[in-house]
């Protein structure tokens, strides 16, 4: 089971102040449970893990098998909540060099629809020219420009290369039950589809087919992932006392730190496979809390890599930051530092030690240095990088985010600010229906 340690924040905020949140956190928990808070039509994620049926998982696994059997490469087309969860889990669990391995046990997973780079899309379509590829087209609204544009290209290429019949088999759509262009296309073309429930927002959708299908295609055990999340659903439940409830403690601690002037939270890992877990976490907290001119700014670093770049800022820059470190207790493989007779590099003091021991000392040394430098530090320990532990971690962050947003008194489940750039982009591109906006924006240029 994953665990949370907040001891290293106590030099900056007091334990009493954190525990003083107990009543407020309870109220936030009850608002989530009873659906009486802001954004209460988006609470479908709350009891999602415990409500996923065996039949649903079997359907996802069967579809994943069709893609595995018929594709060397699968493109996950989506943006924001429609791709980050899948990518976070897949990269956390995959071999670091999976796409270079000769013997493949699952299709190569590639992501698209999360940018509008012509070079990215050109190079992708070039690469796919001699590949048997399939596409998972993911969009809750079904109208997101980035994803729709990539899918238009990929659909055409898949049909041209593999024929309409095969394309129908290897293209899967995950979208709204009724609305949106992705739904219209899927129904017209006869694609296999999965529904994103109305009451689950994009950034909370990793345990819906949005995350589960790509994760299953990549060869990972979605039953264990869901079981881990369900375990955490229990551990963070409304009935669990404050001092035993990790989501409650995390939400309270970060809000108290925020009140004390720590405006930026940096999510830290010492394992590059967790890079996209941080990207997922940034969307979860950034879109949920950054509104009404409030909210902790969620940032992330990969250590020890970024200790050689951002380390200086974190150690001695403006003291408005705190860190939340994700630490992985047990690594998957064993590699010892070899003894070298000549010792030209002077590394014989490490000979015989596991590489992970060196990494763990880097981690401990960093924590002590940053705390000494004025950076409060929280620590989340994952026993190992497994489906089960990752499932726990995802739900822990989701639940804490719901509580934290209510503590901050914002609606954690909307994202009105995201529309501003879209409106301008459509006006600049003369999208039908944006005639007035087009005129207004042209006048500004
Ligand atoms: O799934 P979609 O409707 O395509 O949305 C994808 C993403 O883009 C939107 O603009 C929102 O900011 C995100 O919350 C969402 O996850």
TrEMBL record:
Describe which pathway this protein belongs to, using the record's wording. Answer: Carbohydrate biosynthesis; gluconeogenesis; Carbohydrate degradation; glycolysis; D-glyceraldehyde 3-phosphate and glycerone phosphate from D-glucose: step 2/4
What EC number(s) has UniProt assigned to this enzyme?
A: 5.3.1.9
Enzyme class comes to isomerase
User: What is one term from the GO cellular component aspect held by the record?
Assistant: cytosol
PROSITE patterns, A to Z: P_GLUCOSE_ISOMERASE_1, P_GLUCOSE_ISOMERASE_2, P_GLUCOSE_ISOMERASE_3
Q: Which domain of life is it from?
A: Bacteria
Gene Ontology biological process terms, A to Z: gluconeogenesis; glucose 6-phosphate metabolic process; glycolytic process
Sorted alphabetically, the keyword list is: Cytoplasm, Gluconeogenesis, Glycolysis, Isomerase
Q: Name one Pfam family in it.
A: PGI
Q: Tell me the active site.
A: 287 (proton donor), 422
User: GO molecular function, one example?
Assistant: carbohydrate derivative binding
CDD domains this protein is in?
SIS_PGI_1, SIS_PGI_2
Q: Which InterPro entries does the entry mention?
A: G6P_Isomerase, Phosphoglucose_isomerase_CS, SIS_dom_sf, SIS_PGI_1, SIS_PGI_2
**Which family is it part of?**
Belongs to the GPI family.
Q: PANTHER family, alphabetically?
A: GLUCOSE-6-PHOSPHATE ISOMERASE
What function is annotated for this protein?
Catalyzes the reversible isomerization of glucose-6-phosphate to fructose-6-phosphate.
The name under which this protein is listed is Glucose-6-phosphate isomerase
**Species per Swiss-Prot/TrEMBL record:** Bacteroides faecichinchillae
Organism lineage string: Bacteria, Pseudomonadati, Bacteroidota, Bacteroidia, Bacteroidales
């Amino acid at each position: 089971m994953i665990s949370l340690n907040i001891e290293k924040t106590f030099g900056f905020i007091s334990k009493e102040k954190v525990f003083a949140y107990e009543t407020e956190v309870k109220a936030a928990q009850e608002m989530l449970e009873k659906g009486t808070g802001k954004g209460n039509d988006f609470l479908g994620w709350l009891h999602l893990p415990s409500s996923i049926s065996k039949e649903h998982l079997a359907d996802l696994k069967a579809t994943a098998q069709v893609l595995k059997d018929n594709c060397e490469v699968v493109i996950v087309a989506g943006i924001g909540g429609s791709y980050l969860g899948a990518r976070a889990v897949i990269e956390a669990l995959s071999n670091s060099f999976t796409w270079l391995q000769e013997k493949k046990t699952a299709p190569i997973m590639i992501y698209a629809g999360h940018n509008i780079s012509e070079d990215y899309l050109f190079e992708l379509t070039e690469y796919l020219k001699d590949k048997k590829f399939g596409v998972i087209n993911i969009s809750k609204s079904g109208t997101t420009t980035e994803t729709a544009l990539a899918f238009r290209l990929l659909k055409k290429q898949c049909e041209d290369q593999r024929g309409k019949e095969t394309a129908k088999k290897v293209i899967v759509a995950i979208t709204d039950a009724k609305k949106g262009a992705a739904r219209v296309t899927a129904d017209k073309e006869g694609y296999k589809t999965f529904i994103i429930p109305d009451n689950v927002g994009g950034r909370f959708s990793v345990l819906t087919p949005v995350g589960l299908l790509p994760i299953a295609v990549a060869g990972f055990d979605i039953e264990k992932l869901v079981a881990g999340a369900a375990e955490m659903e229990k551990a963070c439940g409304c009935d669990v006392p404050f001092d035993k409830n990790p989501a409650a403690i995390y939400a309270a601690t970060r809000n108290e730190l925020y009140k004390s002037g720590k405006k930026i939270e940096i999510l830290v890992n010492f394992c590059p496979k967790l890079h996209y877990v941080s990207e997922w976490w940034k969307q979860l907290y950034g879109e949920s809390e950054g509104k009404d001119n409030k909210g902790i700014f969620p940032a992330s670093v990969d250590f020890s890599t970024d200790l050689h770049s951002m380390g200086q800022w974190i150690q001695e820059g403006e003291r408005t930051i705190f860190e939340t470190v994700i630490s992985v207790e047990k690594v998957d493989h064993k590699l010892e530092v070899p003894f070298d007779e000549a010792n030209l590099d002077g590394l014989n003091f490490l000979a015989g030690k596991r590489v992970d021991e060196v990494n763990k000392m880097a981690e401990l040394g960093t924590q002590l240095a940053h705390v000494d430098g004025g950076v409060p530090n929280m620590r989340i320990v994952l026993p190992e990088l497994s489906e089960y532990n990752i499932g726990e971690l995802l739900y822990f962050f989701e639940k804490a985010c719901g509580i934290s947003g209510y503590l901050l008194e914002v609606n954690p489940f909307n994202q009105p600010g995201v529309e501003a750039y879209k409106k301008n982009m459509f006006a600049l591109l003369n999208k039908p229906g944006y005639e007035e906006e087009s005129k207004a924006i042209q006048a500004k240029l």
